[in-house]
């Protein structure tokens, strides 16, 4: 792979990527004011005793993998608008 070293080539490439990504995700991304931030989701999970390993954001829900206060592996589906846990799956 050859990497362009000039700033103008880098700027053009960055602009193309931003336009492509922005146009592809604009209609699918929920309005930022309607959903909890990643930091808010993390703090809510930690307050409930969840030690987070991974958070995957999907439209209006977040999939959280981690461990509960008892050390059991847990997978949560969380509403990104309210922070409510919609489902909880414990791994044995």
Short summary:
With 92 residues, the protein is of the alpha+beta class. The chain has helices at 7-25, 38-47, and strands spanning 51-58, 61-67, 73-79, 85-91. The chain has a domain at 31-91: Nuclear Transport Factor 2, Chain: A, CATH 3.10.450.
Structural features, described:
- The protein is α+β, with helices and mostly antiparallel strands.
- It has a domain at 31-91: Roll (Nuclear Transport Factor 2, Chain: A).
- It is built from 2 helices and 4 strands; from the N terminus they run ααββββ.
- It has a 4-stranded antiparallel sheet with strand order 1-2-3-4, with helices on one face.
- A hairpin with a 2-residue loop joins strand 1 and strand 2 (61-67).
- The longest helix is centred in the first third of the chain and has 19 residues, at 7-25.
- It is elongated and about 35 Å long.
- The N and C termini lie far apart (45 Å).
């Amino acid at each position: 792979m050859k990497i362009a070293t000039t700033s103008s080539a880098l700027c053009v490439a960055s602009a193309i990527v931003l336009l492509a990504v922005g146009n592809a995700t604009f209609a699918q991304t929920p309005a930022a004011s309607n959903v909890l931030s990643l930091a808010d989701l993390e703090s809510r999970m930690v307050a409930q005793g969840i030690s987070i390993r991974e958070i995957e954001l999907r439209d209006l829900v977040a999939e959280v993998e981690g461990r509960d206060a008892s050390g059991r592996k847990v997978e949560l589906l969380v509403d990104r608008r309210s922070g409510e846990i919609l489902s909880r799956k414990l791994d044995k």
